[in-house]
């Protein structure tokens, strides 16, 4: 056949004829199916068929006149020209010989799947689409659940016409593509019955940090149009590539989306129906399916990278068939935003301190920028003319038709959508901050309100009332000299870990477990232990809602720790990541969900029931056992053996021995599989009895905040004596020196993870002069202190000569 080609007849070299999408599907069908990747068969109506149709109906000249001198920034003129062109094509007829070829191909495909008339998906594939530097994502039309030759040919014409959707015209013009040098092919592919199961999108990199070591998977119930259109907030999963390739099932993230709708189809049409209560409260993929998709993603990425002769990150659409229960790949194209960025520079946005910042709405952050402007709600394309350059675009959802106003907005905020919907993809590509999946944006953000949209604070994006000042730093990462003193980072928030890992560093000197418990678990650990034993707890209904998608409260607690700690460990892998076990004070634990019943009031929680004292106490021992189980899973099942364990606030050597024994009971043994166990050096007894403590532990990390308050006898939370609290005090300096010398004498690790080096260059100088092994700094002071330490080391070398 001249104008129709089956996938097994095509290759990537046919891209000019069938477009990037169809060539990619053909490539996958021919070369990846033998490797175990499931791809439904189909055929392409080639770009020559599109050109032939325009010639057959004498449309070229008329289309050219409508596009001539068109100002695509004039939304009304663009809309008028686009509609006239689409009407011309939709009223055209396919040439008879082309119709006959399409009919024969459809009959053959139906026969292959044992059907009289197969139900098929019909997707547009432009010849300038899915390029490494321009996605054209969602620019043209797709049709699902098409059966019968009449509907098939109507859908083919509809795809041809969609080459002149307003968004497509605007996108090509803004990127300098000649409208007549871009043609359109149509892919016809057997439908996957994901209406009976799930579907979604995955990227072979992290769409926010750009890390190429992560696979991001979004998933919903039903057909995938709801996810790309941003109509539902999907489940989100992340998998770590390096350990997956070693056979480890390293799932770094499982986040439940609301998934309120699912798109299904029957003989008549597609329709959205509400998801059931069970679907609403369940993940739409099992762990084994997450891993299978991640393995597919790696296979696809490796194949296209090999073909390209360079690394090629991929954007992949998948669907699960509810009848066969198989996972199919239905589309793959190059990722076009993060993979095109230079990582020699790091641009960092940071909100400046303000007395009061009122959060109006929050959702998933897209990008890492900040935008300010006046709110303008847009409900439909008919309101585009009301939108002004620099406005904050607020909508229930957007689709690719909205690209003409998105590109002149300061930021985008939507009620619905996930990080892989078209709105998010376009926002990244045009470089504006966006918050998707807010749920209530159109209720709270009213026209004319001045708001600041911040996507620089991690995974959660926030819209603040009024103007919040911010600054932008650009850091040159090329050729930065490495100091002899190892520089670690203090990292608490897993959401920022992969972005922070791009900074020059030697690993993580402090990852606080309590940060993850507070932000991800949210319930008091012992309340979860009580529920596991079928005991009643306060705020039980709220707590149970937290783990509704998990087997039970223990599974929830351990999973959340594995995901949070695992993400930090993966981001810096294989560099060391020192994880400090929980160090909540009683007043902090008491305010967690269900916590009041498990905590007593203490006069001074700073020196009360905290740290290692909890671990062997009946009031917390079972929860600490769960912490240990999570650490074992992270190191062994997830393969992140770069994790080292550190105990906080160990008052006596006996407390240290008891905590080590609990580790042993949970099969975490010092020296086995490279496990090292440290203690925080933050109590005077840790310094005075260092020789005894270092018989138990593999080293110390100095906690300068607690050490200072206990050496000086100052409550660092009291404003009455806060002026006395000073890490530079001579008594504190002597303690620091004694701790370093004790570790050096025993040949043990000695570092510092307290605040002092981030705040005081003179403390940093003191530590370097005394040859401390490592200094762990807050990320915002890392680059500045790197230069300070380099200068100190050079100065000391000069004196030594």
Please characterize this protein's 3D structure.
This protein is an alpha/beta fold and about 800 residues long. It has an eight-stranded parallel beta barrel with strand order 23-24-25-26-27-28-29-30, surrounded by six helices. Strands 15-19-18-17-16-20-21 form a seven-stranded mixed barrel. Strands 9-8-7-6-12-13 form a six-stranded antiparallel beta sheet. About 50% of the residues are buried. About 0% of the residues have low confidence.
- Give the uncertain stretches in residue-range form: 129-136
Number of strands: 30
The main β sheet shows up as: 8 strands, parallel, barrel
| Number of DSSP helical runs | 30
Q: Roughly how much helix do the residues carry, as a percent range?
A: 25-40%
Mean pLDDT score, rounded?
90
State the strand order across the main sheet: 23-24-25-26-27-28-29-30
The shape is elongated
